[in-house]
From TrEMBL:
CDD domains cross-referenced by the UniProt entry: AmyAc_SI_OligoGlu_DGase
Any GO BP annotation: oligosaccharide catabolic process
Origin organism lineage: Bacteria, Bacillati, Bacillota, Bacilli, Lactobacillales
Glycosyl hydrolase family 13 catalytic domain boundaries: 13-402
Organism superkingdom: Bacteria
InterPro entries the record matches: GH (IPR017853), GH13_cat_dom (IPR006047), Glyco_hydro_b (IPR013780), O16G_dom_2 (IPR045857), SusG-like_C (IPR056300)
GO MF entries: alpha-amylase activity; glucan 1,6-alpha-glucosidase activity
PANTHER family: ALPHA-AMYLASE FAMILY MEMBER, NEUTRAL AND BASIC AMINO ACID TRANSPORT PROTEIN RBAT
Family: Belongs to the glycosyl hydrolase 13 family.
Protein name listed in UniProt: Glucan 1,6-alpha-glucosidase
Amino acid sequence: MEKHWWHTATIYQIYPKSFMDSNGDGVGDLQGIISKLDYLEKLGITAIWLSPVYQSPMDDNGYDISDYEAIADIFGDMSDMEELIEQAHQRGIKIIMDLVVNHTSDEHAWFVEAKNNPHSEKRDFYIWRNEPNELVSTFSGSAWEFDEQSQQYYLHLFSKKQPDLNWENEVLRHKIYEMINFWVDKGIGGFRMDVIDLLGKLPDQLIKENGPKLHDYLKEMHQYTLAGKDLLTVGETWGATPEIAKRYSNPDEKELSMVFQFEHIGLQHKENRPKWEYIKELDVPALKMIFNKWQTELKLGEGWNSLFWNNHDLPRVLSIWGNTGEYREKSAKALAILLHLMRGTPYIYQGEEIGMTNYPFESLSELDDIESLNYAKEALDLGQSEAVIMDNIRMIGRDNARTPMQWNTEKNAGFSTSDETWLPVNPNFTLINVEEAVSNPNSIFYTYQKLVNLRKEKSWLIDADFELLETEDKVFAYRRYTDEESYLVVVNLSDEEQSFSIDVDYIEIIISNTDEAVIINNHCLAPWDAFCVKIR
Ligand code: NOJ
């Protein structure tokens, strides 16, 4: 198998509005990110996935783009962007841009022209119908919005300010490839591709994901933009199975490097119910089955996994599956050890490396996210109590992951000098912050740093096969092995002791969040114990 830089890389996701504010307006920006590159270099990451920084009216925080080749004023300008690419590069860090090409903003020049002039070439860049059908938007309500001027409806699978692009239009497709090349020429390291599995949609047949032409489009995109360049591309694909993931990520297919699959995240929700009906208790046996499937079915050379617990759309993993009290640090390390030693490219979401948690939101007025606000409005209209709605948002709402990064114990956790920040700072910043983490050699930060470095140093993390081991329900244990060497990873995913016994003849501790005695005794795991050992 041909090796690429992203096989040994760990990627760090930055949500620009919340990372670091350099100009005191309460919103993060590009100069803020530049000022924190030394910190990211210390963590050891190879690339930054930057959530959108393009020009945008910010209806969905930049996932509604009005100009793909300009930077939003709140973040800086193109020279700041070029400086970020260059400064990151000097520290061995690549920039992965977020490519949002399922839709644009309704303020994009293409849509403005399409709307104002139904006879323009741009009209067909979007999807217009005389009658709506029952397709619904991810952000509540119908996916069709009536345009008075032309007396037609346009499709928006997200907010009505995010009209869907019509990928059947060849001119449009080539305009997008030109834009991709504009960014490739700036020296970036690749793209994270937003809801990429929606590109082949057939709205008249109510088909959203995995439409028949999806892979043709991706192959064409590859041919005109990515071919011959060693870029990382990761597609956001909520509906992927291992079979589908292979179509995207098998190198012979010439589409993408890897996809984000969300099957494990599915355990946070009731099946076939709205996402707001969450399940807090982690079903460990189900989690084991899911990871086992992905680890064994995406064989080396046939496809590649991405590994993540968090992103800007998900709750903080410690708040839903970890422990935010007594075992906060230990559970954070345990979850990291479990994930980062599997096969795939790991992603760290900003603040995960210091154990940040969900925010104690108490009222709707503290929220920003369009998805949560639309949900609350709809649920209130249906007569649901605000208490229940707030409980759901406190656990599952996207703003939890988006509160400002906690740097130190100063005003606004050192994120901004402004009197008001765009989302409130989590009050636990006095305890949970970067300064504290970096000064404490036993902190979560150093567990992540070690995992990031292991990935660069140990080729078995790429090559070794995966075998799930039979254990107590709440214990997740697996073996990674090649012809020459074998490693055992054991994690107690619970607040209770678990009995445990595996025939280990261990040679060396690779990483652990517990005492060596636990490994030697080999019969009982304390809450959230986790370790990896090289075995004979
Ligand atoms: C997925 C992104 O991660 C999310 O934040 C966004 O709202 C939707 N796609 C629409 O772009």
